[in-house]
Write a structure and sequence with these properties.
Residues 326-389 form the CxC6 like cysteine cluster associated with KDZ domain. This protein is α+β, with helices and mostly antiparallel strands. The chain folds into 4 domains: 1-98, no CATH class; 101-282, no CATH class; 299-333 and 500-671, no CATH class; 337-498, no CATH class. It is 34% helix and 14% strand. Bound molecules: zinc ion (ZN) (5 copies).
Length: 679
């Protein structure tokens, strides 16, 4: 470590150096420390990066002369005296609080040095197959002019250096290397994340955005707004300059990259994406891979337990533990194929049909009608009245703004255009060829589980529980002759279909363990299927599952030959729900789903429930808050975003449980097992 004595004795040799002004002296130490990478890469290629070079490269010394306003002899003299200290103690000389001098407008159009520079973390080639392995890298071209979006210093101009190994051709960028078309990120989390060719966002800023999304449903667009209004520190004249603008695609990409890097770190791998192609497609495969892994193996908190969701309930003196989850549906969704229950992926979120069902575009949009639609219309001759009605209402009653106003939901987000139709399915009653009543069905109505009658899908399922078996429930085709004059009810879908809801498994301590997208409707066979597939590891199934439709679920299981799950786990409905909504005369209700019939679940008073389901309810309310943000997302983005929100929310919940003394832990036998939830 450099001491004052060292400094004085080395400076003493050159008396003129003692006239150096103190600010220039301290800035010299810090700037030279900052520029170490710029110095080392100009040495001969077998130079050992840990040894301080004898003299400063010309451009660096010129730069220091300009910035510090001291003569070249002083700069060279200071280097001579201080180089070893700067070289070895460099990083510690640059404290967190070091603020470089304000950037002066670079005189040359292609500046090579600046007080704010991003360097690749590597100094020598790391490619183990390269002959130049361990040899010093060289600058590739001049550094790029970039913009930094920082947390505490606002928007800043800076330079980013790219290095190259001339043996193997690997290019080293500040965040990653590029070699043979693969962009490989460095391990760990970088201080600045590159979100476009010339823009880098400080990690703290991206962490802040992610927390805004978790805690207050902030969209990527709004995050970019927030940055400009409260963090950018831009003067009025600078606000419209394009390179100082942070846009929604930047905050979104930053969110994605940070989440992927964090994931790679937790999985002890490195993130690799294609280096070529368009930025918008770059991370799709990596996101898809994580989505798939979480769907199959669950969230990290899948193996969670704590004193709030596990109860010790001794039986005949033997220690026994019981746990439970709460099953519920949350009304959020994304565009999906218009064919009911089809899980085919849309090419873009604007499409109405998946690849397989493209031919559906030729038909009338009234459900069950197989006639071709009229030219430039969406309906056939027979159903013209329905389309006229839809158009005549100006689509007004069916657009999101009206809907939200009616529900008095204020949700300021510009991730969607509020006047856009909510992609309507409308239901009409027609009398004598005239529409007498119409209602929109677009926004999935809040799934008041327990009050919803079991859909016809339950009875139409014959091939056992599976997602596929509920698909394509035949819709009776109305007889055309009757339609023209008669009275009938019909549904027309004038926009895209959205997935029906997200089904969640939440523990009574608010930990979300699983999520699954339900298509078409929330049906009991789907819930049963999910319950099984999410708990394939022996012993992973909770002892109890609260679900408002448990009586239907119980009867459904009971009707399936060989089904035993309903005998192996308790399927109660919650106490409040049971009192208000269930028939006490029905056997399934009064016996199997009666929460009062399970002593392990009852509290001290013998009447209320031991497990508090309100935390789970709260969690689902929180989850539902994303409806507006995710409504226009593609399937890949949707899954990735929601998984990340749950992951971060669970981290917050876990910390809270820890603080409150609930001793959260992981069941090791589940934590490292991987389930295969194939479907
Ligand atoms: Zn190399
Ligand atoms: Zn818990
Ligand atoms: Zn389809
Ligand atoms: Zn028709
Ligand atoms: Zn019931």
């Amino acid at each position: 470590m450099l001491t004052i004595r060292d400094v004085l004795s080395s400076l003493g040799g050159v008396p003129s150096l003692l006239n150096t002004p103190l600010p220039a002296f301290s800035q010299f130490i810090r700037l030279a420390s900052k520029l170490r990478p710029a110095i080392v890469h100009q040495q001969v290629h077998h130079w050992t990066p840990s040894v301080a070079p004898q003299s400063l490269p010309d451009d660096v010394s010129r730069f220091l002369v300009g910035r510090l306003s001291i003569p070249k002899t002083s700069v060279d003299g200071l280097w001579e005296a201080l180089k070893d200290g700067i070289w070895y103690d460099g990083p510690s000389l640059l404290g967190e609080d070091w603020v470089p001098l304000p950037e002066c407008t670079p005189e040359s159009a292609r500046p090579r040095l600046s007080a704010r520079m991003l360097f690749p973390p590597a100094q020598v080639c790391m490619n183990s197959e390269c002959l130049g392995h361990g040899k010093l890298l060289r600058w590739k071209d001049d550094p790029k002019r970039i913009t930094l979006f920082t947390f505490s210093e606002g928007v800043q101009d800076a330079l980013a250096v790219q290095l190259q190994c001339y043996r193997c051709g690997t290019v080293y960028y500040p965040n990653y290397t590029a070699y043979q078309g693969i962009r490989r990120y460095y391990a760990g989390l970088p201080e600045f994340v590159q979100v476009s060719d010339h823009k880098y966002v400080e990690r703290t800023v991206l962490e802040h955005f992610t927390m805004l999304s978790v805690l207050s449903w902030t969209s990527a667009t709004n995050a970019a707004h927030i940055y400009h209004e409260s963090l950018s520190q831009l003067k009025d004249a600078e606000r419209e300059i394009a390179r100082y603008r942070l846009r929604a695609e930047h905050t979104w990409d930053g969110f994605v990259i940070l989440a992927l890097l964090r994931d790679a770190r937790d999985q002890s791998t490195v993130l690799e994406v294609p280096n070529g192609g368009e930025q918008k497609d770059r991370f799709t495969a990596a996101m898809r891979a994580r989505n798939e892994r979480i769907r199959r193996s669950g969230q990290p908190e899948y193996a969670h337990y704590c004193t709030r969701c596990v109860r010790r309930f001794d039986d005949d003196g033997e220690a026994a533990f019981i746990d439970c989850i709460v099953i519920d549906g949350v009304s959020i969704g994304r565009p999906c194929c218009g064919v009911r229950h089809c899980r085919g992926e849309l090419h873009t979120p604007q499409d109405h049909w998946c690849l397989e069902h493209m031919d559906q575009a030729n038909f009338c949009v009234v459900e069950g009608c197989r006639l071709p639609h009229r030219l430039r219309f969406r309906t056939c001759e027979l159903h013209a009245a329905i389309e006229e009605h839809y158009d005549a209402t100006g689509k007004g009653m069916f657009n999101l703004r009206t809907r939200l106003q009616r529900q008095r939901v204020s949700h300021p987000t510009d991730s969607i255009t509020p006047a856009a139709p909510v992609d309507e399915e409308i239901e009409v009653e027609v009398e004598g060829g005239r529409v007498v009543y119409a209602s929109g069905l677009g926004l999935a109505p809040a799934i008041a589980t327990g009050t919803t009658a079991p859909s016809q899908d339950v009875s139409s399922t014959s091939s056992g529980p599976s997602f596929q078996s509920t698909a394509d429930v035949p819709v009776p085709i109305l007889c055309p002759e009757k339609e023209v004059t008669g009275n009938y009810t019909a549904r027309g879908r004038f926009g895209r279909r959205h997935t029906h809801n997200e089904q969640t498994f939440v523990r009574p301590c608010a930990m979300i363990t699983c999520r699954e997208t339900f298509y078409g409707s929330e049906t009991v066979p789907q819930v049963l299927d999910m319950l099984k597939k999410k708990h394939l590891i022996p012993g992973s199934r909770p002892r109890y599952a609260y679900f408002d439709n448990n009586c239907i679920l119980f009867k459904h299981c009971d009707s399936l030959p060989g089904e035993t799950i309903h005998l192996e786990m308790g399927l109660p409905v919650d106490v409040f729900h049971w009192k208000c909504k269930h028939k006490k005369t029905d056997e399934a209700c009064s016996y199997h789903c009666n929460p009062l019939a399970f002593p392990e679940l009852l509290g001290e008073d013998g009447k209320s429930s031991h497990f508090n389901s309100s935390a789970a309810e709260q969690t689902n309310v929180w989850f539902g808050g994303y409806h507006a943000i995710v409504r226009e997302m593609s399937a890949v983005k949707y899954d990735f975003f929601l998984d990340e929100m749950i992951l971060r929310k669970n981290e917050i919940t876990r910390a809270k449980l820890e603080r409150e003394g609930c001793r959260p832990g992981y069941r090791t036998e589940l934590r490292f097992a991987s389930t295969d939830v194939s479907s």
